[in-house]
Specification:
Blueprint: E1 4-7, H1 13-24, E2 28-33, H2 43-52, E3 56-60, H3 69-73, E4 78-81, H4 95-114, E5 119-123, H5 152-170, E6 176-182, E7 184-186, H6 199-205, E8 216-217, E9 219-221, H7 222-234, E10 242-245, E11 250-251, H8 252-263, H9 277-284, H10 288-291, H11 306-312, H12 319-332
Parallel strand pairs: 1-2, 1-4, 2-3, 4-5, 5-6, 6-10, 7-9
Antiparallel strand pairs: 8-11
Length: about 350
């Protein structure tokens, strides 16, 4: 009998790659969507099903209401809770992010527990691990972001993950819980719609910015992250563990230099100069997306994925390949052009992982 699994937020960037990985390995997949009638928004997923010959169906459910969740989880062995708000600009109030993230996570866990789901794999973030610490150090799964010194997004991921662990520990019959903490998620698009994590590549390649802020990230390829999700379901000893899925730090200027090196011959004039912190702070007064970089300005994010490698047998491809494949997909979908700027086909930024 084919094992059936549920993936929340099926039309999101990460969820699409998780679905592809699961279909390719013979799992029957059910994905949650807000509107079953919006066929165009999931046409790329239907194509995945045709290409792999896998079984894919959809259920209507939203993180802001209980409706539909009992039906969505019924008959599923594992739930992959991937969906979570990822803003392209700071919210008007931090609770606009925190409340949906926490309540949505608990809503999924309650439904899974009531249905007798065996395991839940939760997509958290290094945002729940590496922020607010007074001393720079390599962070591991033992670390938690310090809420008193964290921005709204980091708080939302931290509080949602802590709520999940509290639920798993305090509710008899709760599903087994495994948590993944990815870094900045790059990689090829499955459709002509970007996620928030694509913005730095998109802006540099499209010459929408004059240079790089003194900020950086610990990236992970979305395809490698999808493999980590499958392994988190399959490896028995993963139960009760967090796993960081991220590589070595990548500064924005290093990203710009990679893009300039590989795409100059195609006519892309990637800006490679480093912008002063003061200029970034001034621009942030007018550009909400730039404002998101302020908590990380001048800060190195160091995390270790050794535990995932050791216990899950997980590996990562080289960052150069990930950056190229990300850029190639932005070009292929017409989201950036060598002439600079955005095209009419540019997708709206998706606030889902």
């Amino acid at each position: 009998m084919t094992t059936r699994v549920l993936v929340t937020g099926a039309t999101g960037f990460v969820a699409g790659h998780v679905i592809a990985e699961l279909l390719e390995h013979g799992y029957a997949v059910r994905g949650t969507v807000r509107d079953l009638g919006a066929h165009a928004k999931r046409a790329h997923l239907a194509e995945l099903s045709r290409r792999t010959g896998g079984e894919l169906e959809f259920a209507a459910a939203s993180l802001d209401t209980d409706a539909g969740w009992a039906e969505a989880v019924t008959g599923c062995d594992t739930v992959f809770h991937v969906a979570s708000p990822f803003p392209s600009a700071p919210p008007a109030h931090e609770d606009d992010l925190i409340v949906p993230a926490v309540e949505g996570t608990l809503r999924v866990l309650r439904a899974a527990a009531d249905a007798g789901v065996r395991r839940v794999v939760l997509t958290s973030s290094v945002a729940a691990v590496a922020y607010g610490h007074e001393v720079d150090a390599v962070r591991t799964e033992q670390d938690w972001t310090v809420l008193e010194r964290a921005a709204a997004y980091q708080k939302s991921k931290t509080l949602a993950e802590r709520a999940a662990w509290d639920f798993a520990e305090s509710h008899p019959g709760a599903p087994e819980l495994v948590v993944l903490n990815p870094g900045m998620i790059l990689g090829p698009l499955l459709e002509a719609r970007t996620s928030t994590s694509h913005v730095p590549v998109q802006r540099l390649l499209g010459r929408e910015v004059p240079g790089s802020a003194r900020t950086g990230w610990t990236p992970v390829d979305v395809r490698d992250l999808a493999v980590a999700h499958r392994l988190a379901m399959e490896v028995p000893a993963a139960v009760g563990n967090r796993y960081i899925c991220a590589g070595e730090p990548l500064w924005m200027r290093d990203l710009a230099l990679l893009l300039a090196r590989d795409y100059a011959a195609q006519g892309f004039r990637v800006p490679t100069r480093l912008l002063p912190d003061l200029l970034i702070r001034v621009v942030a007064l007018f550009d909400k997306s730039v404002r998101l970089t302020l908590p990380t300005l001048g800060r190195t994010e160091w995390v270790s994925a050794d535990k995932a490698r050791r216990e899950l047998g997980w590996t990562m491809r080289p960052i150069e390949q990930t950056v190229r494949d990300t850029a190639d997909s932005l070009i292929a979908f017409g989201i950036v052009t060598a002439a600079g700027g955005r095209t009419a086909r540019q997708a709206q930024t998706a606030a889902r992982g």
